[in-house]
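the two lines:
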Amino acid sequence: MQDSNKPYETKVIVGGGEKVQQWSVYLIAVVVYMAIVGSFPFNSFLSGVLSCVGTAVLAICLRIQVNKENKEFKDLPPERAFADFVLCNLVLHLVIMNFLG
Amino acid sequence: MARNLGFLVLILSLSICQAAIFRPITDTHRSAALELFTPIDGSFGSLDDTYEALRTFEILGIEGKTDITPMTCPLVVENLGSSSSSLKDLFYALRVNGILKCEISAEVFEGISSKLQAIVKDASLLLDFYYSIGSLVLIKDQGFKSNALLGDADGIFHSIKTLSQSDGRWRHSSNGPGSTIYGAGIALEALAGVVSLASTEVDQSMIGTVKNDIIKLFDGLESYDDGTFYFDDKLVDAREHQSSLSTTSSVIRGVTAFAAVTSGSLNLPGDKILCLAKFFLAIGIPGSAKDLFNQIDSLACLENNRQVINVEMSFFWYRVSIPLILSVPATVLSLTKNDQLKVKVNTVLGSNAPPLTVKLVKAFSSDSKANSIVENQELKFDPESSVHFLDGLPNSVDIGKYIFFFKVVLHDPEQKKVYATGGQTQVPIVVTGFIKIDNAEITVVDSDLGSIETNQKLDLHGENDVSLSANHLQKLRLSFQMTTPLGHAFKPHQAFLKLRHESRVEHIFVVGNSGKQFVIVLVKFLQPIYLCGIFSPIYACAYDFLGLVEKFYYLSGRYDIQLTVGDATMENSFLQALGHVELDLPEPPEKATRPPLQPVDPYLIYGPKQEITHIFRKPEKRPAQELSLAFLGLMLLPFFGFIIGLTRLGNLKNFPTSTVPAIFAVLFHVGIASVLLLYLLFWLKLDLFTTLKALGFLGAFLLFVGHRALSHLASTSAKLKSA
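prediction for all of em together
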């Protein structure tokens, strides 16, 4: 993927499939931690898991939308996709913070 | 036997009123009158209440007039003087004045009587006639005779008579709904008033018709089971309905008033008058002031209905028979104390009767009315206490319930027309005495062999404390004999044996009897073999054998024995602890019934309760604080890596350089950072609603700013593309 093809905002966030791998690593780390210390506030564990998964999903969506080679989203300006990404993240994190307890 | 039965029927038919006890007016009525008629602030309230109170006090001989005169007389004067007083108020004001004798001037009476004369001529309602004529009679009695006399007495008599019906009742108005007996009473009083106020004599044929009406009215008498007679109106109009007491009083007043002003007797049977008097006496002490007034006033009318015919010869002619009441003050006589049978004969208001003798005609036992134990015995008279007494009960009177038949015989045969004595009076008498109990013994019998294992004699007149033991294969037998003072067998109402276990489970058995002997046998067999009846022919035993062991819930141990024997006529009824018995019962089978739970001492529930120890769930294992902090640091590392990566990448080339878009871009980043900070605060201490409110503001700001920044970026990239 050419870095210059992407507007600046998306580069950092999306930057290759490494980012998705990074979120998977996060996920595994949270699960391992729960296995060690026990699942007492189970809602906290769930919100941690959900945060990782949700953010990864949103990142993937953004990548798909921004990618110029993707025929489906040709007419969608990347700024619009980015704005959607930001909004969805904010909503997701509100829910997660509420569920964190 | 048939002759006795026929004789009995004759006797019962002679006594009109059944076996009930009636007592004349006593001091209890006087104290009740003082309680019910209490003046409030010196007056009794309205004029009719005042009149009722004063009349009751006058009849009973209670002094109460002087207290209320200052408050009541002004009210009376005001009512009599005012031209707007109603007829009813005038009537009661005159009645109160008749008792209190307030100072009223002659002009007032003249004015009232001329007004009343005018009303009487035009009246059409029964109550109008009653009040106006009654007021005129009162004016005449209070000394103003000339004003009160009626000119057209025949015409007024006729007008009142037209309201009567054929069955003796009276309608209240000519076009009114129904006729009532209460109205008849009022009408008779009004007619009596007309006759007494007539300046010329009233037509005798009309008076004769009214006398027939009275006879017809008395045909409508109703009676209760105890033989008292009364009048009662059927319920026509709930508002105006009078109770049976007020209806009967109204009739008595009317009849006695009418009899007082007419010559010749009314031919009313004396027995009916006596039973009417007993109706009033049977009420006892009424609960309301009005009922007390009706009762006392009617009884006074019955007692005092006499008219002086010839003063010089002191000859009184009684119109309606004066009832005489036979009362027995004490109906329970004790043989041990040698009580005397005492009888009193009085008039209804408690005054002395004329000279007479009381005879005890017959006396039957309540159980067997076969033979009378007494024949025509005369009672002696004690003039000091005015009591007739029987000098010693007959020898054949044993303990039990009897009905005594009394008859009153007047010394002067002429007075039979004057007084109503009522044939034979039945009075229930209870004779009590000391019952002898002997041959009492308690035995434990071996059922199989029939041999007596333990036998203990008891003294049921004194203390006992036996100690027995038995097992389930034996019988417990208790027997005793009861005899009356005359030596007859006695069967008490209650004869119970109670066995109480130490755990307070109780069992009660009824002691059966045959003849004189009382026996109870408790059998505790397991096999259903009926062995009862072998030993002695004089006990009754019908116990379910298997059931008895089950009944005891298989509880072995010490049982306390208690015997209770009692009767209304037995003076030495007793409840005695006899001792205890150790019972050895077999083990309960699997499905045996448990004994019922005994009631817990209720005071125990008010004490402190048992301490409750709560069991909490064990708290979850929490990780050590260091580990948690280490994990936190681990999670935050990538974030810092991200910041470092940002600067390394130099990703800020597309950042807008010109001022306005730059500001918007900066604000956009600031907005996102502030939202994330808000979330952090939300997690730490804020609640959802505050967060949402703040988020609303921030979100709106962020939207605006972001839109501007991104649209600027989009336009620059579009320019680049097109270029």
